[in-house]
Structures are given as C-alpha cells and as structure tokens.
Design a protein that fits this description.
157 residues; alpha+beta; 11-stranded antiparallel beta sheet
Amino acid sequence: MKYILLIFTLFFSACSVKNYEHTQTKIITIKSPKIKFSDAGYLRNSEKIMELELFMAGKCIEKITVNHLICVSDGCMSKSGFNKDYLNSAYPDDTMENMLLSHAIYGGKNLTKTDGGFEQHIKDENVDIVYKVEPYAIYFKDTKNNIIFKMRDTDEQ
C-alpha cells in the first residue's frame, strides 16, 4: 500500500514541475484596481504557459500564471474573471495574455504599424486605450479606467 502511495505522489508531483523555455528580466509597471507595482520582474514562458513574477526589494510579491486560467496568489480564475477583478470587465478575455506576448489586442482593431512594432488606439463607451508595442517594450494605458501596464527589457533604455 505504501508503494502505491509513493508512486502516486511521485507521479502527480512530476506533473506539477514547470519547465519554461524562455525567461526574461523586465522592468514592469502595473496600476490597476488590485495591483500597484513598479519594479523588476521575470516573464517566463513555454509553449503552453506564461508566468509573470513581480519582485520588490528582491522578494517575489506576486505571481501571475496564464494558461487556460489565470492564477494569482488569491487563486485561479477564468480570464474574464481576472479582467473583472484586476483590469476591466469590458476587455476581451485574452487581453493580459496578448500584452505579455506583445500581440495585438481587441483582435487587431485600429492597428497601425510602426518601425519595429505597432500601435492601437481603442476608444468606446467603456475604454480609452493606447497600446504600443516596440521591439523592447510595451505600453498600455486606459485613461477611462485608470489602468497602466508597461513592460520593458532591463538591458534596453
């Protein structure tokens, strides 16, 4: 019986190990209803999962893991639930994931190509967003909802 328990424990603990293919050090600024942060962090990702670790004074204060759910220190939730609690419920479900991957948001609405990246300006009754993606940085600001998300590489100014 104890061998079965040992095998069961080893099998399920092995499934929880995360092997990330890419790790990048970033300077991150987040201002939202639940998070106010500006310091260093790590963006780790593989083909199926992303993790944003936020550090302040060398200590990890928050982990945001994105796959089919978004997990934070408070627990896991759907992407729409994350938007409702941490960003804005009017945002499409894939907004956080797209920002972390430097992809277009809102299905590419109002996308304008720039040197090395793109910009989007999205304004309606719920949002007033400026979103810029450059080779080493992203900038997201929703003035209507007072939300800012900036991320840039530590080795680029």
